[in-house]
Amino acid sequence: MVRTTSLWLLVGLFGYCLLPWFMVEDGFWSFSWIQNFGTGETAPALFQALFQRRISLTPAGIALAASAISLMLFSMPAVRARALITISGIGLLLMVFQGFAPTSFGAVLQPAVVPAQAGFGVGSAVTMIALLFVLTTAVSSLGKGGDAFVVGLIGLIIALVGIFVFFPVGHILIRAFELPDGSYALSGFFARFFSSDIWSLKCVIGAGSCGPAVNSVLLAVMTGAGTTLLGLAFALIFTRTEFRAKRLLRVLTVIPIITPPFVIGLALILMFGRAGAVTEIFADLLGMEKTRWIYGFWGIYLAQMLSFTPIAFLVLIGVVEGISPSMEEASQTLHADRWQTFRRVSLPLMRPGLANAFLLGFIESLADFGNPLVLGGNFNVLSTEIYFAIVGAVADPAKAAILAMALLCLTLCAFVIQRRWIGKRSYTTVTGKADSGQHSALSPAVRTACYATALPWAAFTAIVYGMILFGSFVKLWGYDNSFTLDHYLRAFSIDLSNGIRWTGVAWDSYFTTLTISTIAAPLTALVGLATAYLLVRQNFAGKNAFEFGTMLSFAIPGTVIGVSYIMAFNVPPIELTGTSIILIIVFVFRNMPVGVRGGIAAMSQLDKSFDEASITLGANSFTTVRRVIAPLLGPAMLAALTYSFVRAITSVSAVIFLVSAKHNMATSFIVGRVENGEFGLAIAYSTVLIITMLSAILLLQLLIGQRRLRRQNRLQKSVSSKPRILTLQPAGRNK
Amino acid sequence: MKIKLGVSLAILGLAITSQQALSAEQLNVVCSNEQDWCDLMANAFEGETGIDVAMVRKSTGETLAQVRAEASNPKIDVWWGGTGDPHLIAAAEDLTQPSGADTSQLLGWSVNMSEISGGKTVGIHAGALGIAYNADVLSEKGLAPPVCWKDLADPSYKGEIQVANPNSSGTAYTELATFVQLFGEDEAFRLLAEIGKNINQYTKSGSAPSKAAARGETTISIGFMHDMVKLAKAGFPLKIVSPCEGTGYEVGGVSIIKGAKNIDAAKRWVDFVLSADAQSRGPEVGTYNVPSNSRATVAPESPDLASIKLIDYDFATYGASDTRERLLARWDKEVKPASN
Lengths: 735, 340
Fold this sequence. Notes:
By secondary structure, chain A is mostly helical.
């Protein structure tokens, strides 16, 4: 403990004495602060406190010094730890106050003055992190909540989620209590929150349209259930059948997830709209009337099913794969047939996976913005209502905040129900014990059902994407179907006559998008899986609240996140707007829940005896995570990486407020083109993005590879195959 | 791991504070016009002045939301384009500042906008409201083309008309205000409710109905004529009608954000986009609204404001937020429920 603490104290001192405390105007990497070292605003805190009489900067230094002294002074571990906790805790608190000092808390919520003090810089960030770890190390040495690594991780994630989720979201939610005259009160809130404008049930009794909240729930339940079923069918086909075209199927199940928003909606309109291709065919052949059914519930539902089934699939395939064959073999030894085995053993073991898949589908549907925008018709949902409450002709942030709260409540309910349903049973199936059995094949009925649902859907997806590809090569989609490469040339032309010049209109945003998502993806996976590890493997006070906190950012629609980030991070102490950092951070904390859910699902299958064995052999938590848990989490890691990379490229509602002239993102560019009616260019760009992401995913898969739990080729060939001689194998040996 | 984690965090921390170096002459523009028009003007301005333009395209609603959120520490210097109402709102909320631009060459409606806002926003272009119909679908259905606003209430158009929702779209609010000014308030709402029975969808975006009409997703749309001209030029069977009773119009604006960091460059930008040379270039990229500089050349395809019966649109009254809220509340009560 003494060694770790001293190390962190050194880091803190380095930050306090040598790095610029405040944000450097022309950037840290310009190193202008080294040329003018120790002077002006760019000086380290020590210099500012000593020579510029900035008394507000002294507490951090005093905290560091006092920690060092108490480290040397007290020899009793418990006393030392308590002293360190007190000192570093107070130090951190004072630092936060110092950051907010130029603005009072009220003024931060409603910024009115241009503050004189710059935002936190490198020095303060390093010092804060150091103090945080001094605090957590001391807490862990008191024997509460695990070893230094675990407590440090908990502290770090709480700090990060607090700063980048709760702080900005609080900014906007407080608006829900705002009265028209700008003051705040509870009085009007409940009336507005429970108003029938939001919760009306008129459509149930057939007397008009329902409120957006009811519409959203209806849609989300349908989408959650539908995507989970389809995802399960795909996952079963993948792991339990000998379907020949698995690779093709894999591509089809992944493509929707990597499709930029609006594109699926556009394709559906061009197929099923009143003037769509399919509608025309039906009208000609069957004399059916051309209607506008696609604009409304069914259109959004169809688009969401296309978009979100892959998410359910990604969650479920890891779970279905992870179910131990020995359970199924035991069942069959006891003379259960394949259907009974599936129904009574495999399916119940998939519960966490099914629940997680449903929860993700449900929340995705609630927060979905692009599809309702294009296909909504007169069917209003919360996410679009929130967007138009902020950007509409009559901007009403209070209404947006109230709608956002309704959305949050719905998510909270789903979350609670999901936890009830999983219950406290054990779903552990991957143990360290010898486990060399074979997965039972599906019973014919289940197999047929899987094929019957998944394959037509796959074919439908293929047709939709065929339409999209087609659309990028024709002059005017739907009207002038003559072949052209113009759209691609306009977007991605390169002039080689005089060195390489990227003359296409799309290059700027393309490069920015790739850079930002490449940085964001590993960070997201790291934060997500670390959180999952804490949730599954560690017990600490407030775990449920902690879990919900990490899910929060996912439940809030992107529009709200986008606006709240502007409000929170446009002024000191944390000044980020207009940079690429804010885009990276928004992606990390928005997509981290997927890493968390995937990690939880995968990790609850890993027996705790792995950890115990590792700890017994003298490893600490960190080594256990690195050498034992992480290698078994291949698919979850892959899912988290893939998903966050892809989401960073395809998300639109959150970034639309955060992109700046210097850092424009592909989606915001594409939305602009769609608004402008340039479908060809938008779709050509989307196609290039899809291909880019597809290659990135294949590369990731190649790099991370498959988790090898048992010997390969585990599927029973068929019942009538020659009797096999089972040989006893040490666990983990692969064929 | 902790060290690694710390290092990665420290790197993140470093990255947080690193911003790109700012060169001396720079300008941050948010453009609410069409992308190609934005790009063309940015390049032309850079070529003429040597000032580095960083431009992003955002809709007026998004821009206004951002300008409000950034009020204490604006990152934008100039907001150029889009319908005038949000510009007027920004001016009324004191989010923008007078540009001091020379308005002597500008047309009356542009100067008018500058006067209403105390010089904080200046009109750059105008566009008239109109009706468009898809000629193919109309003849397939055997319907007569509409000529006047009142024709739209004809029951034979049931389920064939699309228009935006004035609560979310400035275009549709212009239509609502135009009706009120043309027919008087009570008669206007009666007529709108009547037309409402024929509406198949109130879209969120103002330009969506005409795009839907172009593709045959709806038969008739209400919107701005310059959007329709562009779609017709692209090859869609869209016919444009200038209503017989007369019609209202919008004026697009340019505003300098209050607290702009590059104020001199911002003023040069305003002067530039008001100049006759710059405004004459719209048709190069398919922008067909009417320029505000009297000496700018107008494309032959542009809706000729002189031949359209324009009402004397009262921007001061109908741009004010109390009028707006009253009309919208009435629309929600009387017109919205009439739709099917």
